[in-house]
Amino acid sequence: VGIGQTEFSKNSGRSELQLACEATAAAIKDAGLTPADIDGMTTFTMDTSDEIEIARAVGIKDLTFFSRTPHGGGAAVGVIHQAVMAVATGTATAVVVYRSLNGRSGARYSEGVSGGATTSDLIHWSWYMPSGLMTPASWVAMFTQRYMYETGCTSLDLAVVCVAQRKHAVNNPAAFFHQRPLTLEEHQNARKIVDPLRLYDCCQETDGGTACVITTPERARDLDCGGAALICSVAQAAGADQEVMTSFYRPTIASLPEMDLVAKQNWEISGLSPDDIDAAVIYDAFSSIVLWQLESFGFCKFGEAKDFIKDGALEVGGRLPTNTHGGQLSEAYIHGMNGVHEVVRLIRGPSSNQPAKNEHVLVTAAVGIPTRAIIRCRRADPAPPQPPHARPRR
């Protein structure tokens, strides 16, 4: 019912705590609530700002729910999942979901494992570090190489994703690449980061904060907010033999078992199908993972994403307007939470790149790790989602 964010920059000039407080206060105001109405808070395990510090700073009083979700960008929808369960069970009545980071001026994710990790993580990554696999780009490049080999996908196909999203960013005043278009030729001539990923295939490093407010549909009807986006399904999954970004020992590394499972759950819970989805915000830390998720969710079959995206399919007016804010490639990288906000704008109507239809919108979290996805809709009184114990056994 409420979204709030700071500006997105390469140097915020203030602490991550201040960014979180600014976004939280803005989201509460946008929801038509006061800080005293908030009784739940949730964020990423990687967030440096304590819930109680934000609560004290913005005037939130008693908390009956607080939690954190692990696995980096995979938490982008996991935090929403936590908030949904809290309000659905009555544990809290209104939950703030927040994420803030100085991802450019502070700790940079491009540092990879050299930027500091827990002992258990270092043991895990020690198998890959001697081979130079030390950053998210290098890990995803390994999967991308295999996917290209099996499907015939090329760097030019990845460029189509990047150019489509940049077109959206050009119209978005909040985007780093606002009014700065990208051509296929510029993409292809850019330096390689890790073969086959080039500069514009990789997401940005960004300073900024985001927050949103989750409450019940019943309460939402009474709020003077900018419009409520109804969550009609939410799911998470960790696939068999899952590692963090380096599941290289599976029978195949050209697909996403965990995202396949998330997709299956979302279709079952919502009662929808790919044909019902009007737009999508697909986690895009790297361009190639957009293609894999299109296949996981059944918009096309395995290996067909390169054909699906042709002829402007991902642009406004195409079959599936995708990352209409510019995505993490061209708007900002706030660990996917800025994408969650774009879904709300798409449902409400004021996106910078608003498609003609906005009844059902999909948003996903990061891949290669335990992950999540949700479907939001404009329907006012949907059938309530089935509780987990009522879903068909798999």
SSE blueprint:
Blueprint (H helix, E strand, L loop, with lengths): L1 E4 L10 H15 L9 E5 L6 H8 L6 E5 L5 H15 L4 E9 L16 H7 L10 H16 L3 H16 L13 H6 L2 E3 L2 E2 L8 E9 L1 H4 L9 E8 L19 H14 L8 E3 L5 H10 L8 H4 L18 H4 L6 H12 L11 E5 L6 E7 L17
Parallel strand pairs: 2-3, 2-4, 9-10
Antiparallel strand pairs: 1-7, 4-7, 5-6, 8-11, 10-11
Helix pairs in contact: 1-2, 6-10
Describe it for me?
The chain is of the alpha/beta class. 33% of the residues lie in helices and 15% in strands. Helix 1 (16-30) packs across helix 2 (51-58) and helix 6 (155-170) crosses helix 10. It is globular and about 55 Å long.
In short:
Helices cover 33% and strands 15% of the residues.
Largest sheet: 5 strands, mixed
The total strand number stands at 11
Number of H- or I-type helical stretches: 13
Span of the ends, CA to CA:
33 Å
H/E series: EHEHEHEHHHHEEEHEHEHHHHEE
Shape estimate: globular
- Widest sheet: strand order? 1-7-4-2-3
Mean pLDDT: 93
Low-confidence parts: 380-394
What fraction of residues sit in β-strands?
15-25%
Rg (C-alpha, Å):
20 Å
